[in-house]
Amino acid sequence: xxxxxxxxxxxxxxxxxxxxxxxxxxxxxxxxxxxxxxxxxxxxxxxxxxxxxxxxxxxxxxxxxxxxxxxxxxxxxxxxxxxxxxxxxxxxxxxxxxxxxxxxxxxxxxxxxxxxxxxxxxxxxxxxxxxxxxxxxxxxxxxxxxxxxxxxxxxxxxxxxxxxxxxxxxxxxxxxxxxxxxxxxxxxxxxxxxxxxxxxxxxxxxxxxxxxxxxxxxxxxxxxxxxxxxxxxxxxxxxxxxxxxxxxxxxxxxxxxxxxxxxxxxxxxxxxxxxxxxxxxxxxxxxxxxxxxxxxxxxxxxxxxxxxxxxxxxxxxxxxxxxxxxxxxxxxxxxxxxxxxxxxxxxxxxxxxxxxxxxxxxxxxxxxxxxxxxxxxxxxxxxxxxxxxxxxxxxxxxxxxxxxxxxxxxxxxxxxxxxxxxxxxxxxxxxxxxxxxxxxxxxxxxx
Length: 447
What we know:
3 domains; six-stranded mixed β-sheet; 15 helices; Rossmann fold; Four Helix Bundle (Hemerythrin (Met), subunit A); single chain; Gyrase A, domain 2; 46% helix; flat
């Protein structure tokens, strides 16, 4: 990390302004060498300076240059940000000059990687940066802000501090039993502490798993027999003609997908092939896919035809989805009603767009979205974090098992150290170069 890196921090393409970011020990001197204005090596930190980028006596662009001196910067290195006009030609030319003058093109996420390696942020906060960039809803924005602020990391550092205090007392008790002014660590005290930590981690895990579903989007499968209006419902929810709608049964032969935001939460909608007996090879494949999706679905929208009585296909799907989170929808409410099934159904006309809002309200109720959004959204939201959290809980259960089996206290201490290490893995206190390279490679350039 001794070299100086450069990247475009704004979106590629034409715009009013583009920002080129430079970070490293030579950042100020390299930019100063091509800047006509104030001497950047002498200006105060965190100032914006007007001038021009000059190369071989030619004015390249009129710019504003922000100077931020280490260590109070994003990377804890000297950082320069050049605000240029948003012409692709201008930006590319300035980038070319900076590379010729000694900068290296930054790798994806390298600025945030340097912030992590230089100790400005931990791994959870770094992942929060990426989550904030990718946030599509108010919920994911709030989650990401809590990660970046360090609130999520504090949950873990507090528990690690508790474990360190407990281990320290155990070791003092073992090594210096003659000291009378130290707290005697009994098995009951360890049991109480472990019980508290496990309850806390289980609480965080439950919130994290619920939060991950809402963050990634609720996998929502639209099911029903052919021609009940599944594709019309998909189009009505998306407010666009995503799926082909005809009166011909079996029109939808493969899954059709789309995304919507409901109450601040993303739904990943999947329209499926109509469920029926079929001799058509292609349609049978689509039907098999539809049935397989039921097991993966986090929400099922089961569509019935309000203009006719329940069929065997309807009864099969009602039974198949009875243990899933589902909403039973009676479509074609604009036609004469001939369906007597009325167990907690929502009546709609997908074609006319009637009753669609009722479905959205029911989704918010099913997933308790309002209450969830009002909570303190301080928990983990990705697979890496949640997997390590589960592993730490398993290690705590090993400690409990050791206590119940009356193992020697120094053996219990070993298991406690393992919990401490696994919690450290979550926030990046322990990491491998491969993990860090893999994680930051998912970031965009310039961040």
